[in-house]
């Protein structure tokens, strides 16, 4: 794998803020969490009797590889014949249940476990799979800089760049975030992300208007 660049020292607020938001969210929204963790797995299983969760290796800060868990949004063994490929909006492999999960970003919900563990932050560049990170780092200048910080559940590229943007066009958003990290920016991106979830506006090009 391409050597990771020197990591960036996280702002002092970053990890305490993540833990505070996670704890507050779990306490304040406990009934909703219980509903989501019951209804979503049941809906996924009833649709095709396939696995509820989808686990992948992802590359984190400094090039450390970790296992990220998501609710499955595609057909079982979606990459059996293709290997690792870049997913697109309206991907035919996405199930009807998966479309709802992606529009609301609820397929990412199990990644709260990665945030509690410290593999991920709430805000940061999305973590890529090792094979795709290697490919993009070889093709796109400065793509490796994304490993300077902890990857996130949401971020500038997710909020302001629509799903079909190629990696080289999402990269400027990630680099801008790395260079401008602040508590206010994290709060702003979290609030916009909550709005997109409530409006089921993820995975849709029209959400990109600032």
Structural description of this entry:
45% of the residues lie in helices and 10% in strands. With 210 residues, it is mostly helical. It has one domain (14-204). The termini are far apart. 29% of the residues are buried.
Short recap of the structure:
This protein is mostly helical.
Write the layout of secondary structure elements.
Blueprint: H1 14-28, H2 30-48, E1 53-59, E2 65-71, H3 96-104, H4 112-117, E3 121-123, H5 130-139, E4 152-154, H6 156-160, H7 167-180, H8 183-198
Parallel strand pairs: 3-4
Antiparallel strand pairs: 1-2
The main sheet comes to: 2 strands, antiparallel
Question: Proportion of β residues?
Answer: 5-15%
Order of helices and strands: HHEEHHEHEHHH
User: Given the structure, what is the number of helices?
Assistant: 8
Q: Helical content, roughly?
A: 40-55%
Distance between the ends = 35 Å
Structural class: mainly alpha
Q: Please count the beta strands (DSSP E, at least 2 residues each).
A: 4
Unreliable segments (pLDDT under 50, ≥5 consecutive)?
A: 205-210
Count of the separate structural domains: 1
CA radius of gyration is 17 Å
């Amino acid at each position: 794998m391409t050597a990771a660049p020197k990591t960036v020292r996280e702002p002092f607020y970053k990890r305490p803020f993540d833990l505070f938001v996670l704890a507050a969210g779990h306490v304040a929204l406990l009934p909703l969490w219980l509903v989501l963790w019951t209804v979503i797995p049941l809906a996924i299983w009833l649709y095709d009797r396939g696995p509820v969760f989808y686990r992948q290796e992802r590359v984190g800060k400094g090039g450390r590889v970790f296992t990220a868990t998501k609710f499955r949004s595609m057909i079982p063994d979606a990459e059996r014949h293709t290997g690792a490929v870049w997913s697109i909006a309206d991907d035919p492999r996405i199930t009807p249940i998966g479309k709802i999960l992606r529009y609301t970003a609820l397929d990412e919900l199990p990644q709260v476990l990665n945030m509690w563990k410290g593999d991920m932050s709430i805000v940061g560049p999305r973590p890529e799979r090792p094979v795709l990170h290697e490919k993009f780092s070889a093709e796109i200048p400065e793509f490796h800089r994304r490993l300077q910080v902890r990857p996130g559940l949401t971020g500038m590229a997710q909020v302001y760049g629509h799903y079909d943007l190629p990696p080289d066009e999402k990269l400027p958003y990630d680099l801008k975030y790395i260079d401008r990290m602040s508590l206010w920016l994290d709060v702003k991106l979290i609030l916009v992300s909550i709005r997109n979830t409530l409006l089921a506006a993820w995975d849709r090009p029209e959400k990109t208007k600032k």
